[in-house]
Amino acid sequence: MSTQFQQEVIGFDLGHAHTTLASVMVAAHQPKVLEITKRKVQTTALKRRPNTKHGSQNSYTILFGDRVFNHVPPEEELHLAFKAKPSNNPLYMKNMAEFFSAVLEDIRASGQVQDWANVSIIVGCPSHWEEEDRKRYQSLLATPAFPQPQVISESRAALLNAIAPAEVAITQDDLRDSVLIVDVGSSTVDLTLIHGLQGEEPLCDFGAEIGGAFFDEEIYRCSVERYPDPDHLRLMLQLNRNLEPKLIYKCRKAKEKYFESPEDWEASHVPGFAEEISVGRYFEPIVSGETMAHILQKPTKSGQPWIETFEGQLRKAQQEANAKGYPVKVVVLTGGAARMGFVTESIRRVFPEQTTKLIQDSEPETSVAKGLAIWGRGDILVRSFEATIDELFQSHIPALLREKQPHLLSLLIPSLVEKVINDFVIPEMLAWKAGRYSTLQELKTVISTRATEWLASPAGQQFRIDVANRWWNESVRKEFQALVDPVCKAHDVPVGSLDIRVPFQLDRLHYEELEVPIPLGPMLRIIGYVIFWAIVWVLPLGGPILAAFITMFFKEEIDHFIDENMEKLSLPGFLRKTVSDDKIYQVGVQNGQQMAKQMEQKMSQDENFGDSLHASLIAQLSDDIDRAIRKIAVRLYSGK
User: Fold this and answer.
1) Distance (Å, rounded) from C-alpha 51 to C-alpha 552?
2) DSSP secondary structure string, 49-117?
3) Which of 12, 43, 51, 154 counts the most CB atoms within 10 A of its CB?
4) What are the Cα distances from residue 342, in Å, to 25, 189, 346, 348, 444?
């Protein structure tokens, strides 16, 4: 098995409140959630504990996740919610880099990932981050101890995770319209409109600062207000800079417990999250149905309550999608705070079930991490697939087309010559006989103009395309499939995905492609022969016998005479009428067959023409393969 199929991809979702990781083997399909210090979802928190035993002021131990709240003495440096757009703030840069490395080090120590030499890491970011932000973020998280990460949009990862399961009924028709990704995070609610799966850029991206942390802070504020001894609480907060972050953390945990079954806490507080702040003194989060109803009426930074603000953002997304001509057909709900029941209720008020599908992972906290891993797996497969097909186009496929090219000429040239003679030469010669044209020069000009215009017209191009597609299916397609099907099978692509049945199509053809030059000069000499025959016919000694004798023994002289002397000759009507219609058809067909053979032989030996035709065939087939690969890429990136 190739090296790329032995690779493992880690999706790293570093969020404002929570961090989750997932991994998938390229040879597998479904990602698995990794445990960070034995938990699937860890709090994005970092603490530096001084190493006093070593006697160094600069030495410290990094702690992260929920364990940082086990003990919070004031001398330890505690940081929460530090994920943000890249900046030059030294503390921000230090926190991000050390947290990222500490989490990966824990994964390595746990043995959940074995072969780090074959690991790819995909990190998510908000979709509104610019390319420069993503590059800075990638550089910030790069460390020699681990593979350099790639950075993609969290919204795209959420969509990939939503459509990866086989049972999810998202169709290609759904993706032709808008998909709305609603990420209810800790600090913000981010809404991203995506059209299809091809591009990275969203149709629209916006949000509001109404994430789950709004409820944490309001619960904390309510709990502080109800604390029996406010002066004592203020004193404890002043003495320990790390106490308030811990109390807010306790409020968050109580909130999460409440939303697991809110009906259980309509008349009582969620128990189990009290924190001793001094001997015998406890701070307890006040979380109940009454508290939550009160908080939902309070204004957010927008000036409106949470639900009104959230639904306003949803309607804005709806209006944006409709204005762009891609109405929302699917809403993907993600983010840890998506568990709040009124979130789905609000979505359904704006996007009814009758018109819009709503998809939510059973574990919304892990959906982005799994989607990042799915994207990474797909990226490896797509790049490997493209590279392998490209190798075939550098070697085996050109050789196959070159080998089959004479058969294309044997089909194309006789067909073209027959078409030109039957549709242009013979009809115009009949018109000449009827007296429409006075001279041979005039007749030849009309035929040349009409034939040339037809060759360049859509009808003429379609004629050549039809012959080329017939050649492809008769002579090339089966052997082409024998080359590409093993590549499809090796890359988890259904065999037959590159079965190109109609590689040449009019809407993708330029006039110069598949052009076969028909030498109209020699072809028009047929006209001269017919006219010369008409002249000889009326001579004494038996016209037909003399015409045949002269044509057989003095052909070169006749050719010269026709080319040099007959162009301006105007024959009277009685001479023209001596040429029967049958004779015109007979001469046209006989000379056409002979000319087709001569053209085929000449073009087969013409290296310039052969090279030009070969390049055109390769270009047309490459275009078709590129389009097919883009469709395959959608499947591979989505994990379907």
Assistant:
1) 110
2) EE-GGGT-TT-EEEEEGGGGGS---TTSEEEES---S--S-HHHHHHHHHHHHHHHHHHHHHTS---GG
3) 154
4) 37, 14, 6, 10, 82
Q: Is 394 exposed, middle or buried (0-12, 13-18, 19+ CB in 10 A)?
A: exposed
Q: Which amino acid is at 619?
A: A
Residue 371, H or E segment: helix 367-394
* CA separation, residue 487 to residues 128, 176, 490, 634 (Å): 36, 29, 5, 17
In terms of Cα–Cα distance, which of 176, 175, 150, 154 is closest to 163? 175
DSSP element (H, E) containing 434: none
- Structure tokens given for 430: 């009949």
Task: Determine the pLDDT at residue 522.
Answer: 56
| Amino acid in the structure at residue 349 | R
Q: How far apart are CA 273 and CA 253, in angstroms?
A: 8
CA–CA separation, 85 vs 133, rounded Å? 7
- Axis crossing angle, helix 243-260 with helix 230-239, rounded to the nearest 10: 120
Phi-psi map region of 58: left, alpha, beta (phi>0 left; psi -120 to 50 alpha) = alpha
Six token digits for residue 444? 């030849």
C-alpha 7: how far from chain center: 22
For tokens 């929570």, the residue is: 18
What are the structure tokens assigned to 308, written together? Answer: 């009104």
Torsion sign, CA atoms 614, 619, 622, 624: negative
- Over residues 179-207, the mean pLDDT reads 72
Tens digit of pLDDT for each residue in 527-556? Answer: 665 555 554 444 443 344 344 444 444 445
Q: Which helix (H) or strand (E) holds 282?
A: strand 281-283
Q: Across the chain, which distance is largest between two alpha carbons, in Å?
A: 139
> What is the pairing mode between strands 119-125 and 150-153?
parallel
The C-alpha R_g of the chain, in whole angstroms, comes to 39
pTM as predicted: 0.76
Residue 40 pLDDT more than 60? Answer: yes
CA distances 410 to 414, 422, 600, 602, 611, Å, are: 7, 19, 7, 12, 17
What are the tens digits of pLDDT across the range 502-532? Answer: 777 765 444 344 455 555 555 555 566 555 5
Rounded Cα–Cα distance for residues 309 and 116 (Å): 45
**Own/partner pairs, 171-176, CB within 8 angstroms, 24+ separation:** 173/329, 174/329, 174/330, 174/357, 175/330, 176/326
Could you tell me how far CA 257 lies from the centroid of its own chain? Answer: 40
Across 103-177, the runs of DSSP E, i.e. the strands, are 119-125, 150-153
In angstroms, rounded to a whole number, what is the distance separating the alpha carbons of residues 565 and 17? 94
Residue position matching structure tokens 């085929």: 600
Sheet holding 328-334, edge to edge: 204-208, 189-195, 178-184, 328-334, 357-360
Which H helix or E strand runs over 252? helix 243-260
Q: Measuring CA to CA, which residue among 104, 91, 185 is closest to residue 149?
A: 104
pLDDT over 50 at 84, yes or no: yes
Going through 73-211 in order, the beta strands assigned E by DSSP cover 77-80, 119-125, 150-153, 178-184, 189-195, 204-208
Question: Taking a C-beta distance cutoff of 8 angstroms, is the pair 368, 17 a contact?
Answer: no
Q: Give the tokens for residue 559.
A: 């050719």
Buried b (16+ CB within 10 A) or exposed e, 265-301: beeebbeebebebeeeeebbbbbbbebbeebeeeebe
Phi, psi of 189 (to 5 degrees): -110, 115
Q: Evaluate whether 125 touches 151 at the Cβ level (below 8 Å).
A: yes
Judge contact between 184 and 335, C-beta under 8 A: yes
